[in-house]
Amino acid sequence: MSVKFERETVKTNMPDPRDRRGARDVPRPRGPAHELAHDVGETLTKGGGQNGYLAAYLKQLQENPLRTKILTSGTLAALQEVLASWIANDRNKDGHYFTSRVPKMAVYGAFVSAPLGHVLISVLQKVFAGRTSLKAKILQIIVSNLIVSPIQNTVYLMSMAVIAGARTFHQIRATVRAGFMPVMKVSWITSPLALAFAQKFLPEQTWVPFFNVVAFVIGTYINAHTKKKRIAALRRKYNTEGRSASGRPDDYDRRGY
Q1: Are 110 and 79 in contact (CB under 8 A)?
Q2: pLDDT grade, residue 16 (50/70/90)?
């Protein structure tokens, strides 16, 4: 009897393996936001399987790193321009948000930003390869903020000046001098947080695309804010001069250059 009782007790207390609700399985709240996040995650990763979109992207990132970064950066740069124009309600003379800056931004993202980021981040990773101590991670963040970020931001401002219509060295230099410190202040706030997150949670081959996404969010905000200020300044100018604001004038007045 005792043996039978023992077996029955064990059998009674052990959870049924066919039952998916274990002792630690706490019911999760369901709602529209939770279901949307779950559906998006399932679509991107297909349940974490090897055939998911994210897995396919990471595979391409390992096999063809530069090409994948070029396509990613170019797409994000073009999308950033369209999204910023929509937020700022900045349209071209035909009333469209797809302005002439969109393909130019795509070229910048694909053939300037992506290769530059690929080289700089690769060098940074090689310098600190195998160094996982807290001191090494802090030093990596410092080097990134004092060397990598200034180079990237200078090239970014120069490229934005050319895209905006600057054609002389003085115009490009003026743009860099006016925008360098404001952009660096943003980088000094966001870059340490992004790099610390990448060090902790991301494999090294995904760093550049991750930084591209961070730059996309920040760049969209800055771009939209800049567009709003420019539109407001143009409206004040035309109202003062008694002219109607028609069309989309160049950001730079090329007369006299």
Answers
A1: no
A2: low
